Fold each of these.
Amino acid sequence: MPVPDIHPEDYTYDLPSDRIAQYPLPERDASRLICSIGSTLKEDIFRNIANYIPAGSMLVMNNTRVIRARLIFQKASGASIEVFCLESLEPTKDVSQAFQQQGPVVWKCLIGNAKRWKSGILEQSVNISGKIVTLQAERKSELERGTFSVMFTWNNAATTFGELLEETGRTPLPPYILRQDEQVDFLRYQTIYAQQKGSVAAPTAGFHFTEAVINSLKAKTILLEQVTLHVGLGTFRPVSVNSIEQHVMHQEQIIVEADTIRHLRDHLPKPVIAIGTTTVRTLESLYWLGVKEYKDPGGNQTGVDQWEPYPDTDEPMIPPEEALNALLRKMKQRGLSALSATTKLIIVPGYQFRIISGMVTNFHQPRSTLLMLIAAFLGESWKEVYHYSLENNFRFLSYGDSCLFLR
């Protein structure tokens, strides 16, 4: 099929500001849960989610870890400059390697109060393991969409850039949380299973999981697997154009272990439930990467483009198991234990899901690509879910309540 004729104004709703959760609940798994299973809606508490997931299902979570990406500098004039690190540019674009750098690095950044910092070097000092390290930032060039390249240097070669961010950076709360980050955010704007550093926004559907919840899932013979998608700031960007065809999707890095792909292949066609829209996009991207490898064995397929999964031919698509097999053959030939790729996949109504049969997710912003993803899965009943949740005082967005959607 060609690019779907989607009008963003059809995917909006009235979200009062007082319904946007500004703080997390004291207990992660005490959040409310709305379940849309077939044509029925049920309400419960998240800690009981195992009661609604079929035994023998596979749950897949995104184990990315949010970095403390916001750096605050003070100019000699007293002006405060915020530098928000988005992605590494030099000497490497690989996220894990970027944090291990012990020398100068260049990152794509947003700059708050940019008019006050057009030239010159900003600096701040921090105590790391008993040593005072001075971090300097120099604005280099303007990039696309109001971003800039910024070079960071520091005077201690034993210190990595990742350590500097951990010590000096602040939690990158989303723009609809209208307060400064606090100590509570350092722990709560992170899932309990976060491992791989690299996100500047959290996979918030995972906020509700606790060890007790995970144990309740295991007791029901529900399998747990992990993937990595490093979430970019584009996840908060509303669709500002009149036609979805004009919207430019952001690119994000995904990493999936070969064992996970093998377990996924062997599990299908039994239920696969994604924890969060980032995991949905990762799993569905695996399918399309596999299709490319199946059609062009040994090719250099490193990513999924935005509209690639919307073919304009009637050519039958291969089964998911075949797509995953193609990926596994390629990885074996190249001696890879993990697949590293990029995705710009956008999922909107008209998309045919190939891997997942359910998802755990939070509520999403009006006119967002994430809300369109929900609509692609639920159809028009997304409106019923959101209307019910607004009428019944559910808490919305990152620190809000949760949803379980099952086919």
Note: The mean pLDDT is 93.
Amino acid sequence: MSQMYKRLEKALACIREKTDMIPKVALVLGSGLEGITDEMEVSAQIPYSGREGMPVSTAPGHTGAFVLGTLEGVPVAVMKGRVHYYEGYSTAETVMGVRLMKMMGAEALMLTNAAGGVNWGFEAGDLMLIRDQICMVPSPLIGENVDELGVRFPDMSEIYSKRFRETVKDAAAEAGVRLKEGVYIQLGGPNYESPSEIRMVRTMGADAVGMSTAAEAIAARHMGLETVGISCISNLACGMSNAPLTHEEVQETANRVSADFRRLVRTSVRMIGGLIG
């Protein structure tokens, strides 16, 4: 048994000491997007700290806790904040939370983030359905394969579930939320990108850029966890406006669109929960 799987089992045992709830949908909340937990009927909130083997969030705006309960009547496990590669963790460690929610029993995963808009057709406050991704940090699968979780060479031809993407589009229409679609690229951070780097990633086909999510989606696919992702375009990327980039701007934009975001997430969770039975 691999050391990583032993760490996951220890962390899961710590969680099971607090709750035996089995979630149907797992949800990861990005910067400024944690307010969705206010819409839940919460049965347990479990900080990452104190869970043996679990890395701890240090980024501003990331509480660092699992929240379990129901949302729109669907049993959910929510990561209220995530851990990032730039915090000094390996990418394998940054995906432990996603792996744990799968091990808790989750059948579907919704990833959210705040991202910089690379596409000239985007503006701050847009919501983007992730169609595909580019991962520019080390794969979380590097090293010994965790056979208990997935195969050595997993297919990545449909990282983001086509049927879930269609479901989120239907949810956006029902919720009255404008939804764009595009390709997300994960860079390492924590520094924001240079203008030349933004021109590079636009040439590569990216529509939005951030510091999370892609590695988590790879790990989810490795485990057979059906996944969908939504980015909140919190700002235009470097070189696309005259304003300097700040984390405060990211959080302010996320707060401004939080009502639309929460409505979209609630409706999507309800529809995905009904889809997977």
Note: DSSP finds eight helices and nine strands in the chain.
Amino acid sequence: MEYIKVTKENLESEHICCAISGNNDIQVSSKKAWLADRFDDGLVFLKSVERGKCFIEYIPAENAWNPIDADGYMYIDCLWVSGSFKGHGYSNDLLSACIADSKEKGKIGLCILGAAKKKPFLADPKYLSHKGFSVSDEADNGIQLWYLPFSSDAPAPKFKEYARHPHVDEDGYVLFYTSQCPFNAKYVPIVEQTAKEHNIKFKAIHIDNKEAAKSAPTPVTTYALFYNGEYLTNEQMNDAKFLKIAAR
């Protein structure tokens, strides 16, 4: 497999995800705008030259949009290989490239979000364990911080204390989200409108800067839905899924 690094110079011409299409798509424009602003923070987006979900996105942990203490680490936003790309070792290729790049840049290890059991849009714990990662911290909602240190004396990364205990002091549904995930640009407005039409109390909080992300009351900032103060899910949803949850 051949891979290509997305940069400021080729961002407009490169395809970034098979779930979205051309640059006029709101999901594409939202994601590319988010990426463009992150490249100066050291973000790397490496993907297959083939069209599809086969990529890794990572950034120095100090600049990650997550409430973690992981100085010196490289934080993996997303490692996603699916569909016909699965089973060919491409995940290993991408992770190996990330490790080599991180070591060259003087990082002390990698970290990534996961869970004891596979959750949507989070890394597969079986794969992480197989590749030598282990859990360094865990929040009350089961979200875990996994890490791969490059030396035995590297300090383990941790969640911020408030992120370790996800909670909000508001009734109804409260959603925290960022533009890191392209699906949000399309589906968050749909859920907002659905909630309004059904008189469901719903508030969406768009995290639009690193400082706000690092202060979020949840380890997952790309999408974190709460109900009456308690954490529900990190799974992006459409109107049908939201109404199903609301009917419980």
Note: Helices lie at 26-38, 90-104, 125-130, 161-164, 183-197, 210-214, 239-246.
Amino acid sequence: MNTTQLLLGRFHSSFDVVVRPVPNADIEIVFIDTIVDTERLEERLLGPLTLATRRRERDLFKWMENTLQLSRIERVSSIDDAMNALFDSQAVLCLAKEYIVVAVDGLARRTPQEPSTDVSIRASRDGFTESIHTNVALVRTRIKDPKLAFEKFILGERSHTNVLLAYIQDLANPDIVQEARNRLTQLKIDGLLASGILEQWIEDNHWTPYPQMQATERPDKTASALLEGRIAFFVDQTPFVLLAPAVMVTFFHTVDDYTQRWWSGTALRLIRIVALVVSIFVPSLYVALTMYNPELIPLKMVLQLASTREGIPLPIVMEALFMEAMVELVREAGNRMPQQMGQSYSIVGGLVIGDIAVQAGIVSPMMVVAVGLTALGAFAIPNYEAAFVTRMIRFPMLIATSLFGIIGTLGFTLALVAHLSTLKSFGVPYLSPFGQMFLPDFTDTLVRAPVQLSTSRPSTYYSPSGWLRRARYKLQRR
């Protein structure tokens, strides 16, 4: 069998795998026309190659290197390398005993647009796309440092997805970089179709609801993380880049915190912290105070609450759970509807359902106010995954409060803090820098100090190698 037949033998009845013989020569060009720009291939490769074979060029490869205006012309002898080149939107020349891989442009991809999940006011408007090459270019234009490294991994036995591990060589912790390499090389799956799947495979703790890696569509946030000494994972065909290590405070930071003056950034962060507290504790405290400890509420407010609950058939706990479930149902329905209708449906649906529920005497007006505050608090959290976990935490906290009152709220809070203190992201404690008391890092946590006082990089991500031992042990036993 010749080289062309050996290569085509790897494919099974694929209509888009095209074989073009070159006239006047025993050479064939193989490419996948659904992911290759065929016009460019004919103009830059097939046409000049036909003229060269007519002239009987002795060293075809040398002639191609000196003549063709293409970015990559490489000899390969492995069928696997040739097949991977085809899936990377490249053409393969099948010679008598070897292959020549030629880079030709793929189909046009979506141009960078403003991110939809991480909106900013004064930052750049470009966002990552599904093309990994475009995403790398967006970061390269922001960090023009020769020590910015991109290590390539091909994951998925069938998908052969390109994954890039990005870091700045003299800034990133070598232990964390090596740990990332180990986790990627040990990953064995059939297909990797999204960065969220990769995140679940390589994170430290698979059972916690809290995200241990930060997903972003913003190239400026990715560049900032790399300059801090963190690492990034680029996954082909997905517009989200994963940043690690990720500690809890990073999920409450936005680009606007740094593009505005320090007091504005600090005020915004404090507002988000207040929103987090409101979103988690308002329903539980309302249930605890009205059911178990009404003596802690002023008398006039107790009488007002009692009058609003007159005729309500549901207990306070069931009322709170019902309203919280309705809010999540309206939110999810708005997310799954077409974009033009989603926002209007969420607003109108929430107002209509809340008003009808009050008029029907199913829930009290004060409960609608409490649930509305919790919904607004969750919207103020900038990270989607962190906001979702915050919303879900309310339900078990409500149940604990209904059983034990305010003691249940405090007990559940302590258990939650204890759980967070055990989490790690690539060996870095999740509650850093508070747990380790890295005092210099406090200038960029709940508050943002002036830029003149925040000139040093965070020491949080330069963890001792001992912090990674448990993560490595778990990875070996997996």
Note: The chain has three domains: 3-103, 132-245, 260-422.
